[in-house]
Amino acid sequence: MTARGVLIAALLAATAPHAMAAEPAAGPAATGEITDEIVVTARRSGAPMWTIKTPTGAVILVGEIRNVPKATPWRPERLEGATERAQRVILGTKAKVSPGDILRLIFKGGGLTKLPKGRVAADYLDVHQIARLRALEARFDQDYAQKNFLMTAFDLLAKRLAFNRDTADDASDIVRKAANRADIPAQPVGEMRGEDMLDNLFAAAPATHIPCLDAAMTATEAGGDIVAARGQAWTEFDVPAVMANPLERALGRCWPWTNDGFGPALRQQWVGAISDAAAKPGVTLAVVPLLVLAEPDGVLDRLRAQGLPIVGPAWTAPISAGASPS
Q1: What percent of the chain has pLDDT over 90?
Q2: Among residues 22, 248, 263, 319, which one has the fewest Cβ atoms lying within 10 Å of its Cβ?
Q3: pLDDT at residue 109 above 60?
Q4: Where are the domains of the chain?
C-alpha cells in the first residue's frame, strides 16, 4: 500500500461505527456484589485495568494497546462478559470523515507524504540521525530521503518491524462488538472532524515529526522481539515495562498524541469523561489507550490528583535508590 493509501485507510478506519443504544431506564444500581462480579470478570481477561469504586457503582478503565499479537495469552471472552453486564461503555475518539476529506487527501496528499520540494532528510536530521536512517535504508533497500518523516516512521513500524501483522481484535473491538450485541449504550469519548485532522497534518512542519521518526528508528533497530515482549508485559500487568517498550514509546511519540493542537485535548477528553462517569450509578467500562493512561501526568495521574480512589496495577516504575524523581 502506498503512503497516501495508508493515510486514506487510517481516516476511514477512524470512522468505524460505535454502538449508540439508548440509555436504559433507571433502575437499581449495579452495586455491591454485582459490581464486584463485573470487576472480577473483567480482570480475568488478562488486560491491565483499574477500578474507581463509587457509592453507587464503579468505573472500570481497560488499558488498551493496539495491534495485540495473536500469540498474546489473554482471554477476551472475559472482557465480553463484563461488557454485557455494564450499564454503559466509553470508547476512543471518533473521527468524522466526509467524502470531501477523502478526495482532498487523494488529490493533495503529496504534501503529507513527501518533504517540501527541494528538501531532503539530511536538511533536518542531525549527523547521528541521518547515519541511522541511511543504515536502515540500506538494510531494507528503501529510499527515505524525500519522504515525510511521519510516513517513514509508519513504514518502519508497520512494514519493517511488522508490529500490525498476525494480530487479534483489540480490546476496543471486543468491547464494541459485545456492547452492540447486548444493546449496551456506548459512545466515543469525543469527536474530531476529518477536515481539522487534515488541516493539522498539512500545517505540521517536517521537524515536528522528527521525534516520531527517531523513536520509530529505535524500535526498528531493536528488532521484532519487542513486539511479542510488549504483548507479554501487557498481560502480566507490567505497565512500566509496556510503557518502556520501544514500540509503545514510538507509537506514543507520533501524531496525533504529541501534537500541540490535538494531544492535550484528547487527554482531557478522557479525564472529563471518566470524571463524569464516576458520578453516574452503575458500572461504566471505558477502553483507554494505555499510552495516555499511564504516561507521566497522564489520565491516571490526573484522576488520582482529583482524589478519585484508583485500584489496579502500578503504572509508574519505582524510583531506584539514589535517583531523583523526574
Answers
A1: 57
A2: 22
A3: no
A4: 3-20+31-112+169-193+226-311
